[in-house]
Amino acid sequence: MAGGGVISSSNTKAYPGELTCKVLITCLVAACGGLIFGYDIGISGGVTSMAPFLKEFFPDVYKKQSEIKDSSNQYCKFNSATLTMFTSSLYLAALLASCVASYITKAWGRKISMLTGGITFCVGALLNVVALSVWMLIVGRILLGIGIGFANQSVPLYLSEVAPYKWRGACNVLFQLSITIGILVANAVNYGFAQIKGGWGWRLSLGGAIIPAVIFIVGSLTLADTPNSLIQRGKLQEAKDRLLKIRGVDNVDEEFNVEASEQSKKIESPWLNLLKRKYRPQVFFAIIIPFFQQLTGMNVFMFYAPVLFKTMGFGDNASLLSALITGAVNSLATLVSISLVDKFGRRFWFLEGGIQMLVMQVVITVAIGYKFGINGNPGELESWYSILVVLAICIYIAGFAWSWGPLGWLVPSEIFPLEIRSSAQSVTVAVNMIFTFFIAQIFLQMLCALRFGLFIFFLCWVVVMTMVIYLYLPETKGIPIEEMGGIWKEHWYWKKFVPVADEEMAEVKGTNKDEEC
Ligand code: BGC
C-alpha cells in the first residue's frame, strides 16, 4: 500500500503486551472524560430546537420559526447569528484552554489536567441550570469549553500511555465510545425533557451535564498518573513501580525508557520545538487529522440533527427521535472500532470509513436535492423518503464512528514522541475546536446559502482526506509508543524529514546546525 509501512525489523525489544485487569479498569475510568464532551455535543442541538428555550433566550429565532409557513424556504428556517454564537462559544474557550493544559499536563501530569477539566465543566453546567440571561448562558458555556479543552488534551494521551501496545487502539477508542455515549444520553435526555409541561425541560437538559462531570471528577481522583508522565517529571522509581503494576509482570526494563526523560528535559520551548524539521510528519498529522475529522461534516448531524430533521419536514418529536436513532448507531458502530482497530489497523478503517461516508453523502445529496430542490419547498414527504434519508444518514454515521471519529483522537495521541507529546496534543485539540467552531458557526448560513449543495462541500473534502491518508499515513498498529519514531524512517515520503542514526548522534552532541526549519 502506498503509505503503508511497518516497524523496523531491528526492533527486538520485548514489551509486555497483555491487557491486565488493572489497566482495563484504569482505561475505562479515564475514558469517562469523553462523556462531558459528548454530552455537550448532544445537548446543544436538542436544546436549541426546544420552543420554550428559544422563546426565552432567542425570541427572534422563535418568532421567525413560528411565522414560517409550509410553503416557505425550509433551508433558511433556523438561521441566527446569536444562536450559533451560543453553540460555538464553547469551542473557542476549549481551544484556548487546550494550550494552557499543555503546560499543566507536561509539568504536573495528565491527572491534574483531567481533574481541572472535570471541575471547570461542572461549574459551567451549574451556571447554565440557573441562567436567566443569554450572557449567563454564554459564560456557562465558556466554562464548559475550558473543561472540555483540558479533558481532550489529557485523556487521549493518558489512554495511549497506559495501554499495552497491542491493545492501544482499543483502549484509546474507549474515549470515543464515551463521547458517543455522552451524545446518546444527551439526545435521550432532550427527548424526555422536551415533553415536560411548563417549558423548563431545557434547564434539566443543561443541568444534566453535572452528572458526567461528577463521574469524571471522581474517576480522575482515583487514577494514578501514567509512567510516561512520571518519567517526564523525573520520578523514575515511582514510574517503574507504576509500570510494573499496570503491566502485571516482574520485569519492565525494555519498556522503561528513561532516555525519553532526558530528551524531554532538553526541550526548552515545546512550542518552538514543534517547528523542527524532524517533527514535520507528526505535526502534519496533529493538524491535518482533526481538520479533516471536522470536514467530514459529521457535526452537522451531531449538533443539528433535530434541526435538520425538522427542516426536512419531520415533526418536533420525530426530529428528536431520529436524533436518538442516529446517536445509537454512533455508539454501536464505535464498538466495531474497539474490537477491530488493533486487528485491521488504522489505515484500513480510515480508508473504509472514508469510502462509506462518501457513498452515503452522494445518496443524501441526491435525496435532498430531489425533494427540496433549490427553493427548499418539499411539498408532502412520503414515508419511504424519510426512511431512506434516515437510513443513509445512519450508514454515514456508522462510517464515521469506526473511522475518523475514534482515529481522530487515537492516531495523534500515539505518534508524538514524549518530548513534544503534550504540546502536539494541544495542537490537535485546538485544530479540532477551531473547525468544530467553524462548522457550528457557519452551518446554518451555509445551509441557507448552498442548499443541498452543502453536502457536496463535505463530500469533496472526504475525497481529499481519503487520498491523503492513503498516500501519507504509515500504519501505527502494534507498534510500541516508544518505538513509533521508526515508522517515519521507513515511509516513502517522510523518511527525508527524519534524521538517521548518525544525524541523531550529531544532534545530541550539538553539531547539527541545520535542524530548524
Ligand atoms: C469528534 C466530534 C464528534 C463526535 C461524534 C468526535 O470524535 O471530535 O466532533 O461530534 O466524534 O461522535
Short description:
The chain has 24 helices and no strands. It is an all-alpha fold. The chain has one domain (27-223, 267-478): MFS general substrate transporter like domains (Growth Hormone, Chain: A).
Protein described:
This protein has helices at 21-31, 33-47, 51-57, 59-67, 81-108, 110-129, 134-162, 168-193, 201-207, 210-222, 227-232, 236-247, 259-266, 270-273, 280-295, 298-311, 316-344, 346-372, 383-401, 404-415, 418-450, 453-472, 486-489, 501-508. 73% of the residues lie in helices and 0% in strands. It contains 24 helices and no strands. Helix 6 runs antiparallel to helix 7 (134-162), helix 15 (280-295) packs parallel to helix 21 (418-450) and helix 17 runs parallel beside helix 19. The protein has a single domain, classed as Growth Hormone, Chain: A, CATH 1.20.1250.20. Residues 1-10 and 511-517 have low confidence and may be disordered. The longest helix is centred in the C-terminal third of the chain and has 33 residues, at 418-450. By secondary structure, the chain is mostly helical. It binds beta-D-glucopyranose (BGC). Residues 41, 176, 179-180, 183, 293, 298-299, 302, 330, 405, 408-409, 432, 436 line the site of beta-D-glucopyranose.
